[in-house]
Amino acid sequence: MDTAQKINTNAKDRILEFDLSSELNHGMVVSNLAYAVAEEMGLMKDQCYELAIAGMLHDIGKLKLTGYINGQESDPLVIEELKYVRMHSTLGYEELKGQGYSDFILESILYHHENYDGSGYPSNKSGEEIPVGARILRVCDVFAALSSDRPYRKAFEMGAVMELMIEEVKNFDMEVFLAFQRVVHQ
User: Is the separation of the CB atoms in 85 and 121 below 8 Å?
Assistant: First the structure.
């Protein structure tokens, strides 16, 4: 077997070994939280349901990256790799547009890594420029990520999760963050 065949076989093996269960669990947590936060904020019922859908689908763009990042999750991401991972929200948006999803869902997915202070990606939007659905997903996504085991670390305890989020509160819309806190503390 030549080198090219070995590389091709290894890539196939890595893709076949990819376990979707943690991504599906993450999507369910984000979906349920996003629905509850939207409801707590008084959004219309149809927007709450759409945020539940967006929560399930928000990281779907990662599927396009699995061949690249799978198997490397335990290594710290180098800058070059991080650039590709940061494409997942745009890749997800591109994959889902034209498939019948509303603009509310699509924009929530596209901008779910925008920070309220303008330091996020893909467009460095800030404040009210960020669609409300994306602002809700942002908070819920961070909570779900911190409170779950990752290949490179164990889940943080609830108190530590909240402390970490408060330290980074500049990333969140305060109205969303306060509604989120009311939801998780119920």
Answer: no
- Burial-class residue 85 by CB neighbours within 10 Å (0-12, 13-18, 19+): middle
Q: Could you tell me the CA-to-CA distances from 118 to 103, 107, 140, 141 in Å, in that order? A: 22, 16, 18, 17
Task: Tell me which residue of 52, 61, 71, 59 sits closest to 12, measured CA to CA.
Answer: 71
Give per-residue pLDDT as tens, 34-72: 999 999 999 999 999 999 999 999 999 988 776 555 555
CB 40 within 8 A of CB 132: no
What is d(CA 92, CA 55) in angstroms, rounded to the nearest whole number? 12
What CATH topology corresponds to 3-184?
A: Hypothetical protein af1432 (1.10.3210)
**Global pTM?**
0.83
